[in-house]
Amino acid sequence: MKRKTKIILAVCIAFVCILTAGGFAAYFSVHRLYSAANYVSNSEVEAQRAEWEAQQREKLLDAGTEGASVTSGRISTGGTAQEEADAETSDDAGAEEESEEEDAEDDEVRKEERNSQKENEDAGEIAGDAANEKVSAAQRDKAASEETTAAEENDTDEEETTAAEKIFADADEESEKTGLVQNEELSALKQDAVISGAMEDQTESETETSIEDTSDSQKFSGEEAVVPEELTEYLTEESAATDGDVYNVLLIGVDRRDDSWAGNSDSMILLSINREKKQLSLISLMRDTYVEIPEIGMDKLNAAHAYGAGPLLVETVSQNFEIDVDRYVRVDFEGMINIIDRIGKMQISMTDDEVIVANDYIRAMCDSLDRDPEDYLIPEGGTIECDGMRAVAYARIRYVGNYDYQRTERQRLIMTNLIQELSDMNLFEIYDTALDILPLVTHNIPESEIWSLLLQATELFDYTIVQDRIPYDGLFENQKINEQDVLVPEWEETIERLKDTIY
């Protein structure tokens, strides 16, 4: 019974061992076949493996056990040293010896295969590392090349940018120098120009950047682009004129403290532009001149504005002086102050008596405009630097010197100083100044005429300026009518002299 138990136990152990050994054998067999499919094996090893596999098949068939297995589409057979246990149960000593020899051979084969596999794997790893290193090196070279290219492009861009900036900087510097030279040339030409129009001839011969407008009558000096872009459409406009070749516009200064009425016109200057004579005429029309106001009757000239503002005033002037005047520009005290401040300060010589009266006007205007008079008061007589406040106060002085006659002289002096300041500007500066001034005045001048006149500015500022006033000395009488002191002109002689002057 004991022996039988041992035999049964031995058979079970042998069966388990066979299965286990078969699994290992299948693994190594598949691995060998896989290695053989990927690497070239020694012919002797192949022969030994074929012989061993045949022997294993015979043993498995004899034992009635299938040791073959299919793994991943490959056939493998198994046999291990546990078969010795089967041989031991059959007391087959010869089979045991043969099995030991085969195991030894199998171990040798497996050893050689493992060595071969390891060598191939090592070679593969080395080759793989080499390939990876080659790829990495190529990637590094590519990255370095791209970085170098990008750096070169950046350097090129920076060089181009630097070059461009230098070109623009040089151009700006050259433009500034050119502008200064041209301004100096223009100033010199203006000083040397004579009434006959030498300014145009000198500008054409000495300044290459001068151009002639489409009417061949206007010349501009300065930068290459001598006309603001906004005004180019007016270059083809015909010269503005209201009476033949003469352009008449009435400049009106009103004394108005509120909007309840139009206000009296304390200052009236007839500005006439005669292109044929190259002359600017500034003729003051005295406020107390006794005239007929259309649909109103006889009254002082300044009352016409109080009755019907600018339109009635220019109609009154046209009818009484028999000239064509239908354009006007009107400004009040505050507007005139701001205009002078915009154009520039001026030097005016004042007596101590004029300073006293001017300071009284300064205080009154500062009170009306909510300003501090201490910022504007004039300390004493002499040559005074006048801003808008001081200049307007000076122009209002009436009871010093020759009363209203001299007041008209002061007003024309302010106008000629403004013309002088404007004449020192180039066309672009004049245009900017006009944009600032226009909102400060009331006028009835069409836009096309305004810009046409502005385009002629550099020429007009070189015209001869003629000043006068009406009534003319010796051609009027002082009379008292309706309890008013008025000036009654000798109309026939006055009209003839006025036309001789402006036409």
TrEMBL record:
Region (Disordered): 61-162, 198-223
Domain Cell envelope-related transcriptional attenuator: 264-423
InterPro entries membership: LytR/CpsA/Psr_CW_biosynth, LytR_CpsA_psr
Acidic residues: compositionally biased ranges: 83-107, 149-162, 201-215
Basic and acidic residues: compositionally biased ranges: 108-121
Polar residues bias locations: 68-80
Family, similarity comment: Belongs to the LytR/CpsA/Psr (LCP) family.
NCBIfam families in the record: lytR_cpsA_psr
Protein name: LCP family protein
Organism: Candidatus Limivivens intestinipullorum
